[in-house]
Design goal:
Order of helices and strands: HHHHHHHHH
Radius of gyration: 21 Å
Oligomer: single chain
Number of helices: 9
Helix content: 55-70%
Structural class: mainly alpha
InterPro entries: RNF213
Strand content: under 5%
GO molecular function: ATP hydrolysis activity; ubiquitin-protein transferase activity
Largest sheet: none
Distance between the termini: 29 Å
Number of strands: 0
């Protein structure tokens, strides 16, 4: 018998852990993104029927909209921390996932094994696995490259006037040798911010790798090591 509690039972956002953990078959990053999408959907639902959204939150809260906004902000920070990016880039990740969902609407419905009411643990697990495979993995398995492409499009957007500062930050202009030798303050090489090689960063890159399609080597030993170290 399924005795799982129904509704939103996470409590206040400030009481949530700062790091995302994996749940069931979801990776930590997939779990964080899915949680953020859930809170965003609930917030959107308050535009139409706030009492119905409030009814699923346990324990009850007074300001449902503020409650959900705080959770979304927390989710974004967790995604940023998990990927080693800033909050703006975490929002870009959510945007890229939403774009992929819109571009692939209807694919998940092809799975006849999904119980639309999600009344059992098995039905919820099947839905999560299908959602992750169809909508999350294609984005999260290549998130570094997708973020780079997205940032390039933003910087090159003529409506932003090709902002010189943004071009400098995102290193779109290659410095000449003379600028490097003279340590020109406008030389992008002086402002580069490289990712630190840490266990957390290694875990993120492994998540990207493992979420890719048809990988011949699942690296079970490395996966178990990272699971224990990053727990």
């Amino acid at each position: 018998q399924d005795r799982s509690s129904t509704g939103h039972i996470l409590g206040r956002a400030h009481a949530q852990p700062q790091n995302i953990t994996s749940e069931r078959n979801l990776t930590p990053l997939s779990c964080g993104v899915l949680r953020c999408l859930t809170h965003a959907a609930m917030l959107l639902g308050t535009e139409q029927d706030t009492p119905s959204i409030a009814a699923v939150i346990k324990p009850p809260v007074q300001d449902v909209v503020q409650f959900l906004k705080e959770h979304i902000q927390h989710d974004v920070r967790c995604i940023a921390r998990s990927t080693g990016n800033n909050d703006d880039e975490a929002v870009q990740i959510i945007h890229l996932v939403l774009v992929n969902i819109v571009n692939n609407l209807g694919q998940q419905g092809a799975n006849s094994n999904i119980d639309g009411n999600l009344t059992t643990k098995d039905s919820r697990r099947v839905w999560e696995d299908t959602f992750m495979t169809t909508y999350l993995n294609p984005v999260l398995s290549a998130i570094s490259q997708l973020l780079q492409d997205s940032s390039s499009r933003i910087v090159q957007d003529e409506r932003l006037g090709n902002n010189p500062l943004m071009r400098l930050v995102y290193e779109l202009d290659f410095p000449n040798y003379e600028a490097i030798v003279k340590l020109d303050p406008m030389c992008p090489a002086l402002w580069r911010c490289r990712k630190k090689i840490t266990i957390k960063y290694l875990s993120l890159k492994f998540q990207e790798y493992s979420q890719g399609c048809d990988k011949p080597d699942r690296c079970e030993v490395l996966a178990e090591f990272l699971k224990k170290v990053c727990a």
